[in-house]
Amino acid sequence: METSTPVSGFQIAELTAINIAKFITIVCLIALAAIYGIHDVRQVIYLCLHISYCSWWLLEQWLFPQRSQQIFTDKIGLLPFIFVLLFVGIFYALPGFLAFTNSDPIGYLTVAIALPLYIFGTLINTAADVQKMTAKGMGAGLVNDGAWRSIRHINYLGDLMRYTSFSVVAGSGWAFLLPGLIFLLYLQRIASKETAMAAKYPEFTAYQQTSTRLFPLIW
């Protein structure tokens, strides 16, 4: 008779793991502020943007508890859990580290680029998620109107805009590793979702002909 080891028996919801990772990111950013100090508006802006995003993500779980039944519902084991903590919790704070170790004053142009990216990215991502969550809760099938009318994965576009804003504020080319890797991850998710939706919804083919995957008018 086989007995389960603590590692093989460990199971946690993927969304719960991501929530823990978001909290770890907040802790990392506060630790960076304590270690390196705040010596320019760059660090202030970065803290405000990234911590407000992580806080909103966690607040959403309380405001919209039905999200836990719609996204990241799979159970994961110990090793994937550790990977989520390291990747989403710590690696996602890389632009923050680069922002706090960047001694150059932030320029007006940088701020003018970063803030609209963050604001519109957040609005796009949140509006799209809330629309789909509400529609699915009311029994809708394929959601292809409103925010989703022209771009089939509009929530991913908003998320990429937001993470790109963090990299812009950081002021280092290395910071763009984060949105770059997230983009590669989304490419895989988009391919998987496109296949699944094509098989599930007969009207998806027509939807494809009137919309793009991720970038308006491009792809």
Give the structure's gist in a few sentences.
The protein has 219 residues and is mainly α.
Topology:
Layout: H1 6-9, E1 12-13, H2 14-36, H3 41-63, E2 75-76, H4 78-90, H5 94-100, H6 108-137, H7 154-170, H8 177-200, H9 204-209
Antiparallel strand pairs: 1-2
Helix pairs in contact: 2-3, 2-4, 5-7, 6-7, 7-8
User: Which regions contain 5 or more consecutive residues with pLDDT less than 50?
Assistant: 1-5
- Adjacency order of strands in the biggest sheet: 1-2
Largest beta-sheet characterization: 2 strands, antiparallel
Rounded average pLDDT: 90
Overall number of strands: 2
% residues in beta strands: under 5%
- Structural category: mainly alpha
Helical fraction equals 55-70%
SS field, number of helical segments: 9
Taken in chain order, the helices and strands follow as HEHHEHHHHHH
| First and last CA, distance | 54 Å
Global geometry: globular
| Rg, Cα atoms, Å | 19 Å
